[in-house]
Design brief:
Helix content is 57%, strand content 11%. With 521 residues, the chain is an alpha/beta fold. Strands 6, 7, 8, 9, 10 and 11 form a six-stranded mixed beta sheet that branches. Strands 2-1-3-4-5 form a five-stranded parallel beta sheet, sandwiched between helices.
């Protein structure tokens, strides 16, 4: 603990500091000040748990200093040193919860006992406040979640929760003006819980000077709801400040969107603000990361539908080997979709599914192998729906198209039978029952001839290629911390995880668990 001695007599201060064994009283640091004004500055700087102060001092007396200190440090415990004539001062001190006072001339034993009592009192205050804060946080979280439902369905419970929550403020008038903010951040749930709590505390600290209050809750796995409110109306500048603070807080997360609902008045209207934020959030898919949307801003944005003939034109350009034309069509797609809230996410994903499929079909017809997509309708669909932002989906298309042109320019003609064998393995490597017989039948070959031609053309046996392909895929899957070693083993076609681990170690030199740990780090 830290203790501050405030007295205008230097001999009193130095005598106390040198005469008492503060370590035995649990005091680690002792500071001193010559009057109330200096004491206030020292208290703001060092934040002592206990202040031992004279009552009468020049410039600012001890009682006035207590008032000022308690504004920012309500848990600080005071001990006053006073003479017989200071009784009126002491009455005021007792009303302000000063734990004790010692009379002058000072008795060191009495001082030590007063400090012990003050230390105990401080711990009691802190424990009581923490317990109260915990209860209020529970009320706040429950209220925040309740307000994401229509008022008529939660009226009684919400009013009771608001009453419990407002014990801290003494009135429900703090809900005079309110607005809901919804943050969508898929990475948040992968962060440690203490990191999320730290971010929430930072947000609370930022908005406090604006006389704002906040309650929050999480919905689903990547939505965070903040109801922000205060006793005065919201202004456009205030909303911009809230937006700026949220961007600062969530910048470390990188991939996030958020929407601010229309400001409303009264607890019973907060669901309206929440609903408008939900509607605005549905359009964030087409905007860059970190974008804040409001219903008003969305009304100002206009856009046009992508041209219906783009997939057909794209397929024709790809068939003709017209690289410039395919790039121009991709540019038109981006211009139509980027920051266009009038589009539906599913509609655009379906359009991109067609384009990915066209590239996949061209690879198959030209016998160009690729590991980018597994070239099945299911895998392409999963790929197009797996992006949180439209621009990431579009960039994936650009990358896939670029890779197609590179592979087309560098590809050497491959034996058609070998191509069929590789493409079948690429689509079915996760099947633990996949056999040489099944693969050869797909290529319309006998098992022995399939093995012979594959070895002659590639230098590998068919089983070697299958094993190597599975283990390469296992490496990719282990890069994702959500996948366990056991689940990866199953996904790449191994029923026995121990056998998988042995095969993986033989291929890479390390076990799957060590590999994943290194990659994640």
């Amino acid at each position: 603990m830290k203790l501050l001695i405030v007295d205008d007599e230097m001999l009193t201060r130095t005598g106390l500091i040198s005469s008492i064994s503060w370590e035995n009283l649990g005091i680690d640091e002792v500071y001193e000040a010559s009057d109330g004004i200096e004491g206030l500055k020292m208290a703001e700087k060092h934040k002592p748990e206990i202040i031992l102060s004279d009552v009468r001092m020049p410039r600012m007396n001890g009682i006035d200093m207590l008032y000022k200190v308690r504004e920012n440090a309500p848990d600080t415990v005071f001990i006053f040193m006073s003479g017989y004539s200071d009784k009126e001062y002491l009455k005021a001190a007792i009303k302000l919860r000063a734990v004790n006072y010692v009379e002058k001339p000072l008795d060191l034993v009495e001082i030590e006992q007063a400090v012990r009592t003050a230390a105990e009192r401080h711990l009691q205050i802190v424990e009581s406040r923490q317990s109260k804060d915990m209860r209020l946080n529970i009320f706040a979280s429950k209220l925040a979640l309740a307000l994401t439902h229509p008022w008529h369905s939660i009226k009684e419970s919400a009013e009771q929760l608001a009453s419990d929550f407002c014990q801290k403020y003494g009135t429900t008038e703090i809900f005079h003006a309110a607005a809901t903010v919804i943050v969508q951040a898929p990475e948040m749930m992968e962060l440690p819980i203490d990191y999320i709590q730290t971010m929430e505390k930072q947000l609370h600290d930022m908005i406090r000077p604006l006389h704002l209050h906040i309650i929050s809750t999480a919905k689903k796995t990547n939505l965070f709801v903040f109801h922000i409110f205060r006793r005065m109306d919201f202004t456009p500048q205030l909303l911009l400040s809230i937006e700026s603070y949220l961007k600062d807080i969530f910048t470390p997360v990188k991939n996030f969107h958020f929407a601010i609902g229309t400001p409303v008045s009264g607890l019973h209207r907060i669901y309206d603000s929440y609903s408008s934020a939900v509607i605005a959030l549905q359009s964030t898919y087409f905007f860059s990361p970190g974008t804040c949307l409001t219903p008003e801003r969305l009304q100002e944005v206009t856009g046009k539908e992508p041209e219906e003939q783009i997939p057909a034109s794209f397929a024709a350009a790809l068939e003709q080997g017209n690289k410039d034309q395919t790039e121009e069509l991709c540019r038109k797609m981006y211009e139509s979709c980027h920051e266009n809230p009038s589009l539906l996410q599913r509609t655009v994903q379906s359009l991109y599914y067609q384009l990915f499929t066209i590239i996949s079909d061209q690879r198959r017809s030209r016998q160009i192998m690729s590991d980018e997509l597994r070239m099945t309708p299911e895998s392409i669909l999963e790929h197009t729906e797996g992006f949180f932002f439209y621009q990431d989906l579009h960039q994936s298309l650009i990358d896939t198209l670029d890779q197609f042109w590179r592979d087309l320019n560098s590809a050497e003609p491959e034996n058609s039978s070998v191509y069929l064998i590789k493409s079948y393995i690429q689509r079915h490597y996760g099947n633990p029952m996949l056999s040489t017989k099944e693969i050869s039948e797909y290529a319309s070959l006998s098992a022995s001839y399939a093995c012979t031609i594959f070895k002659n053309e590639t230098g590998q046996t068919l089983n070697q290629y299958l094993t190597e392909y599975r283990l390469k895929k296992a490496q990719e899957l282990l890069d994702d911390p959500r996948n366990t070693v056991s689940s990866v083993s199953t996904m790449v076609g191994y029923n026995d995880s121990n056998y998988f681990s042995k095969a993986f170690k033989k291929y890479t030199g390390i076990s799957p668990s060590v590999y994943r740990e290194r990659r994640i780090k």
